[in-house]
Amino acid sequence: MWWLLVITFLLSSLQLTLVPFVFVSGTMIDLVLVFVMSWAMLKKGSSALWLAFLAGLVLNQYSALHMGFLPLFYVVIAYLATLVSSDMIDNNWLLAVVLGFTLSGLFELLVLLSFWFGGHNLFTLDYLSQIVLVRVLLNTTFMLLLFPVLRALNSNLNQRHKALLP
Questions:
Q1: Residues of the chain predicted below pLDDT 50
Q2: Cβ of 96: how many Cβ atoms within 10 Å?
Q3: CA distance to 61, 70, 108, 112, 140, per residue, from 119 (Å)
Q4: Mean of pLDDT over the chain
Q5: What are the helix (H) ranges across the chain?
């Protein structure tokens, strides 16, 4: 599973270096969030939780949030994503999209609440409609592209694992 760490750190690096230049005006995609949500929906267990925690630690150093909030938020979203049965996701990809939209919205709400408790008033209609909603839609759109790739990778890994078993 070392390649999961490589992918997580690669996505974290892209999140920090490339994404701010591609998406402007505060609406950028959260590559790590989409990867963590997708992987947690497909693979049950603690691997997605650990990936969420480690990616949150890396990104938290460059975040405006207080130390520890970003890893906590990623882990909460990953945990909620693991509660959905992977059989339901395999049979109905629309459920994965709806769940991705909901979890991405919950993540943005958690970030907004942490800023609000920190003394920043971001609960304006303009901010919610122009930044938060656009970020949630971008994350959901990227999840539409990433989820089938991760599902194929997961099924390939499961077949290889079954072939290695005696």
A1: none
A2: 25
A3: 20, 17, 17, 11, 29
A4: 79
A5: 2-17, 19-22, 31-42, 47-60, 69-82, 86-91, 93-117, 125-127, 133-164
